[in-house]
Amino acid sequence: MGLGVHGGFSFSAGPIDHVIDWNPATRPWAIVPVGSCFAVVHYAAFRFAITRFDPRTPGREAEEVEVEDTTEA
């Protein structure tokens, strides 16, 4: 029970690979819509996880409270 979509990619799995491997692929036209669906699912899952669980990741650290120096010189 698969979609029967098979494509060969060599390095980047980008548009150039897609065009070069169009003939040996099986249903190469379906790679773009299937990939787009996976992109939407991944975006929704990660957005939900980030907003729901608020993980600490680089660039999203807790803000540090700046302490004022009250010592006299």
TrEMBL record:
Gene Ontology MF terms: protein-phosphocysteine-sugar phosphotransferase activity
Keyword Metal-binding: no
Keywords: Membrane, Phosphotransferase system, Sugar transport, Transmembrane, Transmembrane helix, Transport
Keyword Transmembrane helix included in the entry's annotation: yes
GO biological process, one term: phosphoenolpyruvate-dependent sugar phosphotransferase system
Transmembrane regions: 29-50
Recorded GO CC terms: plasma membrane
Name of the protein in its database record: PTS system, N-acetylglucosamine-specific IIC component
Organism in which the protein naturally occurs: Streptomyces prasinopilosus
